[in-house]
Amino acid sequence: MNDPIRVGQLYPAKIPPGTSRNQAVSTPGRENFQSVLEEKLLKFSGHASKRLEQRGIEFNPDQLRKIESAIDKAAAKGSKESLLLMQDMALIVNVRNRTVVTAVDGNSMKDNVFTQIDSAVIVS
User: Is the pLDDT of residue 91 over 90?
Assistant: First the structure.
């Protein structure tokens, strides 16, 4: 009755060459936390950040939630590059990366042509 109880492996499994420890430890079929977090976060490109600063555009938490919701809607329809029209501004968003690529305020929108988009979302 003195049989040892074995739970798991006593020594770490050998990690195949070219594989990081994190990749080896992760459970197959489960994404790691960082990739899931990055998928859900709204990001601003360097260009968009400059434009927002130059044009004095700031977003409150409610506006950011609306932008995220608009991106979710565009993604559900299969959009890749979307124009978001919100109050007196326009945002071009890479939907897959959830990244605002550029921002235009109301004064700069006049006589502007938006190219390389496949959808438009009106954010209210």
Answer: yes
